[in-house]
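Lab meeting, action items carried over

1. Structure of the two-component assembly. Owner: GW. Status: complete.
Input record:
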Amino acid sequence: MTSPLPLRWFTFAAPSRFYALSGALLPWLWTVTVGLAVAGLYIGFFVAPSDATQGQAYRVIFIHVPAAWVGMVLYLAMAFWAAVGWAFNARLASMVARAIAPTGALFTFVALWTGAFWGRPTWGTWWVWDARLTSTLVLLFLYLGFIALVEAIDDTRRADHAGALLALIGAVNVPIIYFSVRWWSTLHQGATISATSAPKMASIMLTAMLLMTFAFWAYAFAVVFARTRAIVLERERDTEWVAALSQGKKSTA
Amino acid sequence: MHQWASASEFFAMGGYALYVWGAYGVTAIALVLEPVWTARRHQRALAAAAQRDTRLAGGLARER
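Predicted assembly:
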C-alpha cells in the first residue's frame, strides 16, 4: 500500500476530492465574477468616453474581445484536459474537458453575436466571410462537434477518447484564428493588445476591457467547476462517497 | 457619471441603442441562463444519486 511519493499528486485528481475542493471555491468565484463585472461595466459605460470615430457603438468592445479570448483559450484548455484524460487514463481530466465544451461554445457564440452587432453599424454588415469571422465560426462548430461526438457514444471512456482526438485535431484552428488578421487581408481589425507593442487604445478603455476579461475568466472557472461537479455525480453515482453525500443531503433537508 | 446628461441619453447610446443593447442583452441572458441550467443539472444528479440509494436500501431491507 506504499505508493511512490511522486504519485501522491494524483490523489488531488480523485473526483471526490475535486468535488469537495471546488464546492468550497464556488461561492468565492461567483463573488469575484460579479465584483469584476460590475467594476468593468461601470468603467466601460460611465467613465470611459465615447470613441472619436465610432461614437458609442465601440462600447461593444468591452464584451466582444474578452468573449473571443475566453472562447479561444477555453478550446486549448479543453483539448489539453481531454488529452491528459486520454494519455494518463485520468477520468477527472476527461470530465473537465467535457465540462469546458458548452462554456467554450457559449463564449464563441457571444463573440460572434456581439461582433455582428458591432459590425453592422461600423462595417455596414452583420456578417462577412473573411478569415477571422469564418475561423471563429469553425471554432463554434468544433465545440458543437465535440459535444455531439461524446454524447453519441454510449461507452463513457471510449467517448472521452474519441472526443480527445477531435479536440486535438481541432486545436490547429486556434492559431489560425489568432493570426488570421495578419496572414490574410481581412475586414477585421488587427490585434488591439499584443506582447510586443503598446496597446492601441486609451488606458481607461483598456482597464474596462481587462476587468471584463477577468470577470469572464472567473465566470468560466465557476461554471466549468459547477458543471464538472454535476458530471462527477452522474458518473460516480455507484460509489460510496456519493451515496454518503446524498444521504447527508437528505438528512439535512 | 460625467458621460451622460440623462438616463434617456444613456439608453439611446448616441443612436446605437439597438447594437449596443442587442449585444449586451443577449450576452447577459446567456451568462445568466448557463449557471442556472448547470445548477439544475447538479440538482438532478444529486436527486438521482439519492433515489438510487433509497432503492438500494429498500432492496437490502427486503433481503433481510
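2. GW to write a short summary for the group page. Key points so far: The first helix of chain B runs from residue 7 to 12. The radius of gyration of chain B is 25 Å.
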